[in-house]
Structure formats: C-alpha cells, structure tokens
Amino acid sequence: MSLYQLIYQSQxxxxxxARELQALLTSSRANNQQLGxxxxxxYTPDGRFLQVLEGDQQAVRTLYYHHILADPRHHxxxxxxxxxxxxxxxxxxxxxxRAAQAPDLRTLLGYVPPDTPALLVPRPRTRPELVELxxxxxxxxxxxxxxxxxx
Length: 151
Ligand SMILES: Cc1cc2nc3c(=O)[nH]c(=O)nc-3n(C[C@H](O)[C@H](O)[C@H](O)COP(=O)(O)O)c2cc1C
Fold this sequence. Notes:
By secondary structure, the chain is an alpha+beta fold. Helices cover 36% and strands 26% of the residues. The structure holds flavin mononucleotide.
C-alpha cells in the first residue's frame, strides 16, 4: 500500500454546533475506519477547520477531492500539502478531534507561506514540521469532552 498524507484547511459555511460536530465526527470516523484512513480534525469557534488525512493514496485523494471538497458545509478549502509518507502520524485515530482557538491555528500555520502560483512554486509534498506541531498540540490538549475523547 502506498501511504499518503493530505493536510488542508477550510472555513465552515456557518458555525458548527456541538451536535453537528458530533454527527460529522461519528460518520467520518465510521467511514474512515472502513477506508483504512486515519487523521485528525481541528475546529475553531470562528469556523476554521484543519484536517489531516492519511492512508492509501487513492482512498485519501478520493475522500478529499470527491467528497470533502464538494461538501457544502464548508468552503475556501486549501490543500497545505499532500504526498507520500513513510508512516502514519495519527495511526491510533480514525479521526482525532481537538477544539482549537483562532490564535492556536494562527500559530500552527504561522510559517505556512501565503498562496503562491502553483506553476512557480510547487506545493511541498509533505510538511513533517507541521505534523510535529499538530501532534504536540494534540498531546497537550485536554480531552475534555466526549468529542475529543473518542478515537
Ligand atoms: C470539515 C469536514 C471534514 C470531513 N471529514 C471527513 C472524513 O474524515 N471522512 C469522511 O468520510 N467524511 C468527512 N467529511 C464528510 C464528507 O464531506 C462527506 O459528507 C462524506 O464523505 C459523505 O460523502 P457523500 O456526501 O459524498 O456521500 C467531512 C466534512 C467536512 C465539512
């Protein structure tokens, strides 16, 4: 199996209530488990998502480009990186979840350069340093709700 990782950010159309987040996580976790996909999702109160998806290349790309990208619940999807990786970073989670604050996200993404024309600067294949920051954020965060506690 060719292991692949894709990280994107997006903006929710309208703020997600806890109930909606719960429904999204429940169905995504079940689906990801079936597809052999692992990953994590961050969500901020002002409606920003950051998601890592990892697994078989075709499964990850199909999920993102054919389903998630077309999901009307969010917009302004922007892939930060995608490419082959040697191992899973979120192997234990079909979709880990952490609530984040807007400044957390700004810090995490602080070093990501603004969009540059793809023809001039190819998108980096993976961003191990961003994954490291996300893993650190996950481990520090309090699993203080069932949304976060479930894998
Ligand atoms: C921010 C966000 C993240 C999502 N993450 C996943 C995911 O990890 N796995 C998944 O199966 N669906 C995820 N979805 C839901 C998909 O967009 C889609 O509704 C689901 O795959 C069902 O596909 P379909 O509606 O095309 O049948 C996500 C949706 C949003 C808005």
